[in-house]
């Protein structure tokens, strides 16, 4: 999806002077927005498709957040630094004008802990949800402003979140920016391991994740697109008649542990049943076990990690 840069303002935003420090290697302004004046890029992260969580209202407690927006799409996070004589108010007003001129609606904006809530800064900077915990490290203070904007048009839906803070002890103003361009996920990119690859992984590690097994949401119903992965599991079992394995179901940590233990067991049972329905597969060689979220391979703090944790695994007996 090709996106055009928003119209520039004749004032400070986007009409950049030469930066006093170089941008970090591999970074660039986002084509939707750009930068304020002589800001330089001090942190940068771009993902072709990922999950992003953005605050959508005041936050009193960083550990108990109701006002948040869960998004997926192309995600770009940028950290800018500029001289502290540019106040958070000045920077925020320029961004607000630029976004409005570009057809964005301002969904939420606030100033300091009185409007944003005492937990807002901690949630944005320290919790590793909006930004990775090591992203452009900074201690937060009360001199900040935040803004969330959205634009929906024929090019798609885009969200912009900005957190702008004056760090006067260090003579700088910091801008943290997230842009999420929501678009349909390109499916069909998973390369299902064939029987020989499954065998090689079992020989090397004693276990293997079976990519390409999909279940209906909150269900043990196996989706039709899982057929190829099931057939490769069956071929492995046909080619190695002495092989006995655990079929292990994993979930993310959403919901109670007891419920997820039961769901993961039902999903493991469903895989055994599906394999038993294929030719020449003796289900006595298969031991279904559900372990819920007890063995994660990624963080459950975001949807991208939770998706990795919802999986089926073969483990040698």
UniProtKB/TrEMBL annotation:
Annotated ranges, domain OmpA-like: 202-317
Leader sequence residues: 1-22
Main location: membrane
UniProt keywords, alphabetically: Cell outer membrane, Membrane, Signal
Pfam families linked to this entry: DUF4892, OmpA
Keyword field contains Membrane: yes
Gene3D superfamilies on file: OmpA-like domain
Domain of life: Bacteria
Localization of this protein: Cell outer membrane
PANTHER family, per the entry: LIPOPROTEIN YIAD-RELATED, STATOR ELEMENT OF FLAGELLAR MOTOR COMPLEX
Protein name, as recorded: DUF4892 domain-containing protein
Native species: Billgrantia aerodenitrificans
């Amino acid at each position: 999806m090709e996106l055009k840069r928003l119209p520039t303002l004749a004032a400070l935003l986007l009409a950049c002077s030469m930066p006093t420090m170089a941008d970090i290697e591999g970074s660039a302004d986002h084509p939707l927005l750009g930068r304020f004046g002589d800001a330089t890029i001090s942190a940068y992260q771009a993902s072709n498709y990922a999950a992003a969580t953005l605050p959508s209202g005041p936050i009193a407690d960083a550990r108990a957040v109701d006002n948040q927006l869960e998004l997926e799409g192309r995600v770009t996070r940028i950290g800018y630094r500029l001289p502290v004589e540019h106040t958070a108010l000045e920077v925020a007003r320029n961004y607000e004008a630029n976004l409005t001129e570009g057809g964005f609606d301002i969904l939420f904006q606030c100033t300091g802990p009185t409007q944003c809530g005492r937990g807002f800064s901690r949630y944005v900077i320290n919790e590793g949800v909006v930004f990775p915990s090591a992203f452009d490290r900074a201690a937060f203070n009360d001199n900040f402003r935040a803004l969330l904007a959205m634009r929906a048009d024929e090019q798609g839906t885009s969200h912009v979140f900005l957190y702008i803070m004056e760090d006067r002890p260090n003579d700088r103003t910091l801008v943290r920016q997230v842009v999420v361009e929501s678009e349909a996920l390109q499916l069909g990119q998973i390369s299902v391991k064939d029987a020989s690859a499954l065998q090689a992984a079992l020989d090397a590690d004693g276990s293997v994740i079976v990519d390409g097994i999909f279940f209906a949401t909150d269900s043990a119903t196996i989706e039709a697109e899982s057929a190829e992965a099931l057939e490769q599991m069956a071929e492995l079992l046909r080619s190695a008649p002495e092989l006995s394995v655990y079929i292990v179901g994993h979930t993310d940590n959403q919901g109670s542990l007891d419920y997820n233990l039961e769901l993961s067991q039902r999903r493991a049972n469903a895989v055994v049943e599906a394999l038993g329905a294929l030719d020449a597969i003796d289900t006595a060689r298969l031991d279904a076990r559900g372990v819920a979220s007890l063995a994660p391979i990624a963080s459950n703090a975001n949807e991208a990690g939770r998706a990795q944790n919802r999986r089926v695994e073969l483990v040698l007996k």
